[in-house]
Design goal:
Blueprint lengths: L1 E2 L25 E4 L9 E3 L5 E3 L4 E4 L36 H6 L15 E4 L5 E8 L5 E7 L4 E10 L26 E11 L6 E6 L5 E6 L4 E5 L5 E5 L7 E4 L5 E5 L4 E6 L4 E7 L5 E6 L6 E5 L4 E4 L6 E5 L9 E6 L8 H6 L12 E6 L3 E6 L4 E7 L31 E6 L5 E6 L3 E6 L5 E6 L6 E6 L5 E6 L4 E5 L8 E3 L6 E7 L12 H4 L2 E7 L3 E7 L4 H5 L2
Antiparallel strand pairs: 1-3, 2-5, 3-4, 6-37, 7-8, 8-9, 9-10, 11-12, 12-13, 13-14, 15-16, 16-17, 17-18, 19-20, 20-21, 21-22, 23-24, 24-25, 25-26, 27-28, 28-29, 29-30, 31-32, 32-33, 33-34, 35-36, 36-37
């Protein structure tokens, strides 16, 4: 098993912040020679060792008796924001119990009808996390994690219909999200519970599939990360180390798993062997979010200490810390990396206003914070390139706030009232960014100018919990605390193009399963065999599956 995790990056403009000190050894250490015959990257040998080209790499065996690594990272005293008093692990990070109750669905005629294609019932408590992966045979695997301390693996069998799908009276199968009226692209989705994945002793708040879909992982507040066979649900490995698991994600080119903890550490394992490859230490508080950059060359994390940190995966050192004046003042809640552009030239257009070329667009990362701001950073040049005031006092004064370097747009004045940004995303088609907050709005921003383009208001005043950009349309999906998912045309400020309802409580998580290039190779039949769909999880103890018609937004809105 060989894949590339190239650690080469553009030379830094300046080493402004200190790199985090390497974490102390946890147990026995073994130094291995690097390199492979293909010219580089990360390789697992026949004996299970891990190799990097041209360097020695440390494999750490976990010692349960050893204390967690100390945080040795030194930062300037005047550049660290106020720590968050309490990090809420489950649900929407910025919502307290009172907020959750205040935003629950109101009964009555205002409710949106159930337009789901399938309902996944089986959990006995809130479903906190959901992930989806399309398999080679066209079926879709779904993984859900809940407050009942279990994860459930599902298989979705998709059958295109010759006629319109009916109302879906059968338990677990509803009407198609794009069905009705003889729509030739309607589908019947039949869900099957493949396996109940037990073994956690606390809520399962994070789930994810590996890049090839062969493995999946569940992370719990018990500190365990479990790796499962995505086909059968068989337990492959149990990974230990962090005090809990707040989030997890897979590397885009191999079976490397990354997880963050409230103890301030981030752990990286080789899932196939269970070897601990790295422990990133430096955050002064919970690591609330994190990701691999799409090219796999860097790890980016955000924390309750109001910082965003960029790490070298091979060495475990901190390349840069974004913090202080012009950056977040309170906890970072979410992160999103720019998707890789296709060779159409759109990347160069989007990069014109951010000081980055088209091929470097993968270096853009957008963060959201409890201070009501979104911050766009370039991990290569180590600069804050834009600051988006989603919700704060005197918000109009900050709509045009655009960073001209490391300062991120200058001073902000006093913030009387701010609403946390809980979801962020960057469009792969246009130079646009989106921020969603608990104020019930999603805002679309121009990356080139830093200015606000549109405000997408949720009519039921539901906090925005997740947002996803569509890969082929100038549109995005938002989920909210009112239990509804909405599709918006990002070019306008009008009402939603479509609403998808059915949940009786807040939508906590949203996973999409899109075909990035629907007509690749002229295979029009893919639209019938592999429809775009998304899966939601909710506090109502269910997950739901919805399908999106494969058609332009104008025709979609007329359905």
């Amino acid at each position: 098993e060989t894949f590339v995790m190239d650690d080469d990056m553009p030379p830094p403009v300046e080493e402004t912040m200190t790199s985090a000190a390497a974490s102390p050894p946890l147990a026995a250490e073994q130094l291995l020679p690097g390199g492979n015959e293909n010219g580089g990257g990360l390789t697992q040998g026949e004996d299970g060792t891990v190799l990097f080209e041209g360097e020695q790499f440390e494999v750490v065996e976990i010692d349960d008796s050893a204390p967690p690594p100390e945080d040795d990272d030194d930062v300037d005293d005047d550049s660290v924001g106020d720590n968050n008093e309490e990090f809420i692990a489950m649900g929407v990070d910025g919502l307290t119990m009172e907020d959750d109750e205040a935003n629950s669905l109101a009964a009555g005629a205002d409710e949106v009808e159930d337009t789901s294609s399938a309902t996944l019932s089986g959990h006995s408590d809130s479903v906190y996390s959901v992930a989806a992966h399309r398999m080679e045979d066209g079926s879709v695997r779904v993984l859900t994690g809940g407050g009942d301390d279990v994860a459930t693996l599902w298989n979705l069998t998709i059958s295109p219909n010759d006629a319109a799908v009916g109302g879906g009276e059968e338990e677990g199968v509803g009407g198609s999200g794009g069905g009705g009226g003889g729509n030739p692209l309607s589908h019947t989705i039949t869900p099957t519970a493949v396996a109940t994945l037990s073994g956690h002793t606390d809520s399962v708040g994070a789930v994810a599939f590996s890049s090839d879909g062969s493995l999946c992982a569940s992370g719990g507040l018990d500190g365990l990360v479990k790796v499962w066979d995505a086909g059968s649900g068989e337990l492959k490995r149990t990974l230990e180390g962090p005090s809990d698991c707040e989030w997890l994600t897979w590397h885009s080119k191999g079976n490397v798993l990354l997880a963050g903890s409230s103890d301030g550490t981030v752990w990286m394992w080789l899932a196939t062997s269970g070897a601990c490859m790295q422990v990133f230490a430096g955050h002064e508080g919970a690591v609330t979010c994190g990701l691999f950059t799409p090219d796999g060359r860097a790890v980016v994390t955000g924390g309750a200490d109001a910082t965003v940190r960029v790490w070298a995966p091979k060495k475990g050192t901190c390349r840069h810390v974004f913090q202080g004046h012009g950056f977040h003042e309170t906890a970072v809640t979410c992160l999103s990396a720019h998707p890789l552009f296709d060779p159409s030239g759109a990347a160069s257009e989007a990069g014109a206003g951010t000081g980055s070329g088209g091929s470097a667009e993968h270096s853009l990362v957008l963060s959201g914070g409890e201070d009501g701001f979104g911050k766009l950073v370039h991990v290569g040049t180590k600069k804050v390139v834009a600051s988006f005031a989603h919700s704060s006092a005197d918000q109009a004064d900050y709509h045009g706030c655009h960073g001209g370097g490391g300062g991120g747009g200058g001073g902000r004045g006093s913030v009387k009232e701010a609403f946390s940004v809980e979801a962020v995303g960057l469009s792969g088609l246009q130079p646009w960014a989106a921020t969603g907050g608990i104020d019930g709005t999603c805002k679309v921003w121009d990356v080139n100018t830093g200015r606000l383009r549109h405000v997408l208001s949720h009519p039921r005043s539901g906090a925005v919990t997740r947002l996803k950009w569509h890969p082929r349309e100038a549109s995005l999906l938002t989920s909210s605390a009112d239990g509804v998912v909405r599709v918006w045309d990002a070019r306008t400020a009008s009402s939603p193009v479509r609403e998808f309802g059915g949940h009786g409580d807040m939508v906590v998580d949203l996973a999409t399963c899109f075909v990035a290039d629907r007509m690749s190779g002229g295979e029009a039949k893919s639209a019938a065999l592999r429809p775009d769909l998304f899966v939601t999880s909710s506090d109502d103890t269910t997950a739901k599956v919805f399908t999106l018609p494969d058609m332009p937004l104008q025709a979609f809105a007329a359905l």
